[in-house]
Write a structure and sequence with these properties.
- It is a single chain.
- This protein is α/β, with parallel strands linked by helices.
- The chain contains eleven helices and eight strands.
- It has a single domain, classed as Alpha-Beta Barrel (TIM Barrel).
- Strands 1-2-3-4-5-6-7-8 form an eight-stranded parallel beta barrel, surrounded by five helices.
- Strand 3, helix 5 and strand 4 form a beta-alpha-beta unit.
- Helix 4 packs parallel to helix 5 and helix 8 packs parallel to helix 9.
- The longest helix has 17 residues.
- Bound molecules: 3-methyl-2-oxobutanoic acid (KIV).
């Protein structure tokens, strides 16, 4: 069923049931207006910790806090009627162990109305994913390039080339076996992404992976051309809103300096039209 034909938000099980079916469509969102624009078009919307880089100017996702995620997720939820909302668990909120992860995931769900949380990591997170899913918290996993681990991965590199492919395959199987209802594959070679998609019983959501994945996700500010500090190869720009916004701001500044804004149609007469003198 397409997102536009749906009447109510899908559940994680509905997303899981889309394995091998019509591609799942997803984008990140951080604000109410953006969420409203994508609600009719996306199966799920991710409040990604990329918010730290694209909206807050942080150099990586490592500085993102629970409070930031909660504030943005509450805003996004207000813009959604039909798409499911997934919220990223920020760096440091789940890695200590299952109990810490449960406490913070439960808070994210309770305070934002999220349908699921997403966390990064493969085999090392399997126990935590099993703990959460057994206690009512649906989990989307994220393997391949996991940006919260850039300091150990040595940067934003493609993951899983050559012999590292077996490791990535094992990670993907581990999160599926632990109960994740879907898994994001980020910056993974196309052939490996296709093999993982073929072997896994749950949907794979590609970002820099393969058109053969069960779904795709992009960071909305990247695909709209609003975040232009850098452009990964896997980003397709569907618009150049950043350029348009800057041109509009420059035009406004020029008109203010020339005193051509505000014009007659933007100001108010001393007496209201039709008012008796
Ligand atoms: O934070 C984020 O935006 C993400 C996507 C890139 C999948 O995790």
């Amino acid at each position: 069923m397409s997102a536009t034909a749906r009447k109510s938000a899908p559940l994680p099980d509905d997303i899981r049931a889309r394995k091998g079916g019509a591609p799942l469509v997803s984008l990140t969102a951080y604000t109410t207006p953006m969420a409203q624009m994508m609600d009719a078009h996306c199966d799920f919307v991710l409040v990604g910790d990329s918010v730290g880089m694209v909206l807050h100017g942080l150099p990586s996702t490592l500085g993102v806090t629970m409070e930031m995620m909660i504030l943005h997720a509450q805003a996004v939820k207000r813009g959604l009627d039909r798409a499911m909302m997934v919220v990223d668990m920020p760096f440091g909120s789940y890695e200590e162990g299952p109990q810490q992860a449960f406490r913070n995931a439960a808070r994210l769900m309770a305070e934002t109305g999220a349908g699921a949380v997403k966390l990064e990591g493969g085999e090392s997170m399997a126990e935590t994913i099993a703990f959460l899913t057994a206690r009512g918290i649906p989990v989307m996993a994220h393997v391949g390039l996991t940006p919260q681990s850039i300091n150990t991965l040595g940067g934003y590199k493609v993951q899983g080339r050559g012999a590292a492919g077996d490791r990535l395959m094992a990670d993907a199987h581990a999160v599926a076996g632990a109960g994740a209802f879907a898994v994001v594959l980020e910056k993974v070679p196309q052939g490996l992404a296709d093999r993982v998609t073929g072997e896994l019983p749950i949907p794979t959501i590609g970002i820099g992976a393969s058109a053969g994945c069960d779904g795709q996700i992009l960071v909305v500010d990247d695909m709209l051309g609003l975040f232009t500090a850098f452009k990964p190869k896997f980003v397709k720009r569907y618009a150049s809103l950043g350029e348009q916004a800057e041109a509009a701001i420059a035009a406004y500044a020029a008109e203010v300096r020339a005193r051509t804004f505000p014009a007659d149609e933007h100001v108010f007469a001393d007496t209201a039209p039709g008012a008796k003198p």
